[in-house]
Amino acid sequence: MMSTISFAQSKEEKTIASKVESLRKAMIDADKAVLEKLSDEKLSYGHSSGKIEDKATFVSNIVSGKSDFTSIDLSEQKVAISGNTAIVRHTLTANTNDGGVAGHVKLYVLLVWSKDGNQWKLLARQAVKVPA
Question: Is this model's pTM higher than 0.85 or not?
Fold first, then answer.
């Protein structure tokens, strides 16, 4: 489930919100083709643990189940666009099953999308733990 504020969004902001939703679904479904299509070749994917992955590692870990999201809820999403760059911030609440071990996370996430031609690609992602 995804809850976002959708009033007064520009066409590009709606496009980015749609890309974020596609990414959310692809992470739950471990959809390799969609993950690869949405991710830039230079992707830098940062976890709240401090671990940083490139595109190949990010996709591989999702597809293999090493990073297994069984549900992802995004809330408080804000999209800002400047030229060919879009910044998305949201709160991610998810259930996981990493390597067969059930877990729950609540994170603040920053996504950076870059537009090349008419395609938006995920260039960077950084998550931090929500303070207690």
Answer: yes
